[in-house]
Amino acid sequence: MAEEPGLTAFVCTTCGTQYAPSDDPPDGCAICLDERQYVGAEGQHWTTLAQIASEHDGRVEPQEPGLLGLGLVPAFAIGQRALLVDRLLWDCVPLSGDELVKAVEAGGGLETIAISHPHYYTTMVEWADRFDACILLHEADRQWVMRPSPNIEFWSGDRLHLSDDLELIRLGGHFAGGTVCLWRAGAAGEGALLSGDIIQVVADRDWVSFMWSYPNLIPLPPQEIARIRAEVESLRFGRLYGAWWDRVVESDARAKVLRSADRYLDAATKGR
Fold first, then answer.
1. Which of 7, 68, 136, 201 could serve as 114's disulfide partner, Cβ 3.0–4.6 Å?
2. Half-sphere exposure in the Cβ direction for 171 (13 Å, CA)
3. Are 196 and 216 in contact (CB under 8 A)?
4. Closest among 152, 165, 97 to 121, alpha carbons compared
5. In which element (H, E) is residue 200 found?
6. Whether this model's pTM surpasses 0.90
7. How many other C-beta atoms can be found within 10 angstroms of the C-beta atom of residue 24?
8. CB within 8 A of 120, min separation 6: which ones?
9. Does residue 7 sit in helix, strand or coil?
C-alpha cells in the first residue's frame, strides 16, 4: 500500500503508531490520548519512516531454536521487540528495513502477522505490504486501527487455531481484544506463551502482573484477573516471552503466572 504522492504516513514518536497517509500530521494520537497510554510532557510529536530508518538500526537475536527476536537499536517509542516463529510475526516493530527483512527471509519468510494489542500495531501495514502477509487482529480492538488495510482480518471469539503448533488466545485485560499466542513446540516441547504485555513480566522474572494501564499505574479489577487466571490454567506452557528482550520467564512459567494472579487477588482482597 504505497503512499499517495505528496502524502505521508506519520508515526507517533511516543507509541510508534503509524497513521493513514495525509498532508499533515493528525491533531493528536488517539492511542496516546487513551488512558492506557500517555502524551509526553513535551507534547505530541510525529516522525516518518525515513527519519526512523536514518536514526535506528535493526536488531536480530535468536531467542531459542525456531524463535527469532526482531527489534530496533536504539529502542524507539515503547521499545518492544517482535518474535518470528513458523512464518508468523508476533507483535510488530516500527521499522521494516533491509536488515530485518533479510533476517525474516532467512528465517523462512512471513505469511501472517498477529499482534497482542493496539500499542504494538505500529507499522503493521508496512510489514504486511512488504511480505504480502495477512494481519490478524481481534475484532474487539477494531476501533484502534489508525491505518486501515485490506490485509487486516479481524477474528472473533476467544481462540483462533493457526496450526498444530500455534494458537491465538484472547485474554483481554489490558485491552478487550488483548491476545497471547501459544507456541506448543516452544521451550523444547514444553510450550511457550508469547504474551506481549497482556501478561507483564516484572523485575523479578519469577513473577508477572496485569494492568489496565502500565504507564499510568491503573490496575485491573479482581474479577478480570480471576477470569484471566482461569484461562491461563487451561493452557500448557513452560516458558513465557514478554514484550521486551529481557522480559522472559524461562521455566515453570504457567505455575508462576498462576501464583502471580493469586498474589494480585490476595492483595486486592486485603486492600494492600
1. 136
2. 32
3. no
4. 152
5. strand 200-201
6. yes
7. 9
8. 16, 78, 80, 82, 91, 92, 196, 243
9. coil
Gyration radius of the chain over CA positions? 18
20/3 Cα distance (integer angstroms): 9
Statement: residue 192 has pLDDT above 80: yes
Collapse the DSSP code of 57 into the 3-class scheme (helix H, G, I; strand E, B; otherwise coil) and give the result.
strand
The CA distances from residue 27 to 30, 32, 33, 118, 162, in Å, are: 9, 12, 11, 19, 38
70-127 pLDDT per residue, tens: 999 999 999 999 999 999 999 999 998 889 999 999 999 999 999 999 999 999 999 9
What type of residue sits at position 229?
R
Q: Among 236, 228, 272, which Cα is nearest to 254's?
A: 236
- Tell me: the pLDDT tens digits for 197-240? 999 999 999 999 999 999 999 999 999 999 999 999 999 999 99
Question: Which residue in 63, 59, 13 sits closest to 37, CA to CA?
Answer: 13
| Domains by residue range for the chain, with CATH | 11-270 (3.60.15.10)
Determine the residue type at 131: F
| Cell of residue 55, nine digits | 536514526
Count CB-CB contacts under 10 A for residue 79. Answer: 14
From residue 24, how far is each of 8, 19, 27, 124, 227 by CA, in Å? Answer: 8, 11, 9, 21, 43
Using DSSP's 3-state secondary structure scheme, residue 52 falls into: helix
If you ran DSSP here, which 8-state letter would residue 145 be given? -
Following DSSP, what letter does each residue of 8-41 receive, concatenated? B--EETTT-PBPPPBSS--SS-HHHHSTTS---T
User: What is the helix (H) or strand (E) element at residue 84, kind and residue range?
Assistant: strand 82-85
Instruction: Kindly report the number of other CB atoms within 10 A of residue 5's CB atom.
Output: 6
